[in-house]
């Protein structure tokens, strides 16, 4: 594949009210006044993140304003104090991903020992930006019933988001969750990010990592006003923030089981045979805590899903007599050597039986791989029960480290592996292939993200991020490597190793489609990305500029 480079050399944004917070963090801004409404320049603002013990201190500017960017999402407490005034503390500040919260403080005259504590609730309206977005919070992610534990299904909690039926090539490869339509845009026009790093398959516009829902802090669906470094797609920016460790060790274990002994019989199942099995096991856990209290934290998660499912389908296949050329009782079968080129008339075979010497040996070799009927009649005479097995593994390890009071480091590694057998082809492409001619589907993804944030003085901040992802896998035939064409001398077929197998035969509605799939979709690509954003706070105005480099190969 040819390499592709995308460079955004510099982006400059000047906003009159507030600056969009960083992609995987949030920001706090506000004004400090006295009870008469006058601003209090020189007041000290102290923001505390109880889970990690992190504190951020700022001095209010000449206009009474403060701005605290690049803060970890979660619960915060903010205290303001100034000599000659009582201390005011606001608690219960729930900072969401990519959101800037506006706070207001009114200090009363008094000693510093006098303190007023106010518990606030997060406002429903975002007043510092005109973006249209929704945040699916940790409580919803963890407590909503979620069959399959694919977090993207919760995107439907947001307005203008639906999960459409499949049908695209990208949808046929999707193993990490459904592809949502947002605001009427195509499902393949979303950008997917994990902690601010792209996890989008750039060839088919898929999400290729499905983090465990127990590892997700929250995720945001941004439908407009994207940050300047994230363009190139017409639909939504969906960004997931994973959990980080705290000063307290926390862990969880889970297992969900569905056993075949609880299954009912399908209408089409053979009543003389045991109920086809359907076993599902999904298990895993999380663990996080401090490596160095108040400085270094870790969080690890693992999840596995094993599905052993049998599918019952019916097909129309030729019986032994038809395979030998005996079509007695069928509509007349014309001898192709007797066709009149003008009238199209022909002479049927005597007795509607093709002579043994006239039956093509390649056709006979092909039909020897097609199952015989299990029932009587010409149509729907084969009932087949085939396994549709699927295994999914996902792993994530995250470290947050406070290098100094002005330097924060985040490192996260995630992997996602999925393997699936589709015995009758994929329903996304409306396939119903005779047994023995199905597909396999696999996805292997590795993602690494490193982020460094440095604060310069009281009004400047630099954020650098580096991301790497590789994804490979796709569709393959169950008969890959079986070179049927070479074995029987069939000419004019593909010699691509991915396509090697059996040809596909269609009989215009007489029999079910026989043979391997005709198209296979796959990918093997990796990308590197680097972001650097520089923020300057100037009271009522904030500047943001930086660069973005993306390399795909």
Automatic annotation (TrEMBL):
Pfam families in UniProt: CarboxypepD_reg (PF13620), OMP_b-brl_4 (PF25183)
InterPro entries assigned: Carb-bd-like_fold, Oar-like_b-barrel
Record GO terms (molecular function): carbohydrate binding
All copies of domain TonB-dependent transporter Oar-like beta-barrel, residue ranges: 241-552
Protein name: TonB-dependent transporter Oar-like beta-barrel domain-containing protein
């Amino acid at each position: 594949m040819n390499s592709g480079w995308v460079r955004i050399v510099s982006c400059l944004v000047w906003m009159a009210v507030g600056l969009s917070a960083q992609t995987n963090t949030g920001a706090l801004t506000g004004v400090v006044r006295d009870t008469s409404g006058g601003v209090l320049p020189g007041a000290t603002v102290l923001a505390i993140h109880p889970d990690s013990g992190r504190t951020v201190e700022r001095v209010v500017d000449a206009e009474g304003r403060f701005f605290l960017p690049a803060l970890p999402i979660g619960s915060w407490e903010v205290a303001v104090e100034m000599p000659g005034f009582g201390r005011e503390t606001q608690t219960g500040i729930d900072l969401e991903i990519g959101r800037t919260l506006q706070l207001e403080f009114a200090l009363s005259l008094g000693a510093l020992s006098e303190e007023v504590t106010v518990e606030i609730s997060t406002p429903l309206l975002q007043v510092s930006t005109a973006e249209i977005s929704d945040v699916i919070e940790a409580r919803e992610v963890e407590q909503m019933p979620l069959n399959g534990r694919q977090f993207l299904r919760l995107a439907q909690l947001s307005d203008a988001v639906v999960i459409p039926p499949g049908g695209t090539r990208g949808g046929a490869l999707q193993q990490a969750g459904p592809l949502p339509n947002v605001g009427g845009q195509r499902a393949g026009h979303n950008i997917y990010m994990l902690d601010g790093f792209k996890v989008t398959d750039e060839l088919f516009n898929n999400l290729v990592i499905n983090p465990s829902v127990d590892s997700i802090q929250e995720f945001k669906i941004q439908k407009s006003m994207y940050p300047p470094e994230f363009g190139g797609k017409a639909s939504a920016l969906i960004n997931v923030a994973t959990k980080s460790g705290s000063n307290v060790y926390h862990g969880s274990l889970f297992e969900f089981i569905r056993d075949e002994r609880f299954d009912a019989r399908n209408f089409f199942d053979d009543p003389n045979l045991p109920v086809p099995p359907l076993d599902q096991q999904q298990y895993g856990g999380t663990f996080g805590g401090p490596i160095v209290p108040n400085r270094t934290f870790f969080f690890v998660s693992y999840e596995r899903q094993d599905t052993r499912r049998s599918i019952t389908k019916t097909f129309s296949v030729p019986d032994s007599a038809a395979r030998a050329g005996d079509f007695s009782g069928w509509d007349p079968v014309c001898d192709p050597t007797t066709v009149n080129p003008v009238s199209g008339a022909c002479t049927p075979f005597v007795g509607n039986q093709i002579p043994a010497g006239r039956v093509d040996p390649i056709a006979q070799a092909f039909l020897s791989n097609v199952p015989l009927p299990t029932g009587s009649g010409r149509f729907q005479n084969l009932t087949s029960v085939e396994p549709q097995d699927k295994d999914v593994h996902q792993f994530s390890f995250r470290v947050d480290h406070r290098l100094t009071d002005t330097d924060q480091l985040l490192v996260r590694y995630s992997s996602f592996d999925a393997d699936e057998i589709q015995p009758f082809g994929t329903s996304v492409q409306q396939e119903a292939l005779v047994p023995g001619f199905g597909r396999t589907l696999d996805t292997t993804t590795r993602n690494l993200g490193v982020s460094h944030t440095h604060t310069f003085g009281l009004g400047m901040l630099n954020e650098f991020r580096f991301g790497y992802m590789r994804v490979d896998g796709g569709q393959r035939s169950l008969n890959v490597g079986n070179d049927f064409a070479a074995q029987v001398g069939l000419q004019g077929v593909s010699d691509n190793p991915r396509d090697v197998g059996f040809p596909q035969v269609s009989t215009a509605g007489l029999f079910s489609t026989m043979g391997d799939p005709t198209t296979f979709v796959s990918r093997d690509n990796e990308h590197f990305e680097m972001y650097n954003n520089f923020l300057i706070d100037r009271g009522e105005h904030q500047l943001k500029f930086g660069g973005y480099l993306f390399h795909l190969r």
